[in-house]
Amino acid sequence: MSKATRLNELRLYINRVKKFKVDDLAKEFNVSRRTILRDLEELSILGVPLISEVGPNGGYQVLEEKNLLAVSFTKDETFSIFFALLSLKHFISLPFESEYNSIIKKFYLNLNGKMKDEIDLIKDKIDFKIDNQTKESPLLKELFMAAIGNEPLWISYLGVNREIQPIGLFSQYGRWYCPSYCYLRKEFRLFRCDRISEIGLSDRNDKMNLNETNLNDIMSLLSAKKEHELIVELTPEGVEKYKSNVSPYHRISIDSKGYGVIKGSISETEIDFLADYFIQMGKHAKVVQPIELRDEIKKKILVLSVLYQ
Asked: Which residue, of 186, 208, 224, is where some domain finishes?
């Protein structure tokens, strides 16, 4: 029996019996006590929660291992898992950052020698760039757990205290967003996670039941509340500039030559900000709609032209 096979069978065996002694395992697997001790140490490194008990009736015990997986992956499946994990590497913030590092370690340690060599060979051949990560979002885990637990929170958002109930999290171009029910506005709102500086559980007793609420449905609802249709034509340079600071409400389509078109919807309160935003993109962005945004851009350009006369 190979070491990898023995470790896998040993993991399943101890999860089934829960309490065991080294001598019993050595006899069961026909190996020495020293080999079993080394195997148990490796399983512990891989995340199997073992505790030792002293005394004449002592031995080892599995604390609680309900989620042990005995899954075999093909070579291509292993590469796919590695690429999926690698795609998260450059995020400044992740909901489970320490757990992510632990998963990477366990994944790598659980590979056989040949597969480790192949992973080592290809890991310097591919990478993923995450744009627009200017600020950390250190409270992602708390927001995510509140969404899972259907719990309301109090947050400090740009220095203003709010009470919200998160729906979930999503990331676009490196920024994390938390769609939530806002108890102040009494409607669903979108909160940028890097703008949340403090967080805690709210003690309000009128929380909503959002367990069955779908994240995509809420995003569609938020988008539908916008008042003006937005259409902007972009040059290839404009596409790159736009990707670094994109709004989650807007869609961008890019043709084979690299030219893009932004489509979405905006509210009246966004017109002033977007006018400044598209002006700084210069000739690389042309606003087609709405007319209100076009007029605001013209006014601002006129003010600039007078300033430099």
From this structure: 224
Phi-psi region of 282 (alpha: psi -120 to 50; beta: other; left: phi over 0): left
Q: Report the pLDDT value the prediction gives residue 59, as an integer from 0 to 100.
A: 82
- Give me the domain span that covers residue 25: 3-62
**What pLDDT digit, counting tens, does each position of 166-175 carry?**
999 988 656 7
Instruction: Give the distance between the most distant pair of CA atoms in the chain.
Output: 94
Residue 204 lies in a domain: yes
Tokens 């990477």 map to which residue?
104
Tokens of 157: 């958002």
Does 239 reside within a domain?
yes
Q: Is residue 174, in this structure, part of any structural domain at all? A: yes
Model pTM score: 0.55
| Total of domains in the chain | 4
Distance CA 293, CA 272 (A): 8
In a domain, 19, yes or no: yes
**Pair 119, 111: CB distance under 8 Å:** yes
pLDDT band at 155 (very low <50, low <70, confident <90, very high): very high
In the chain, the percentage of residues whose pLDDT exceeds 70 is: 88
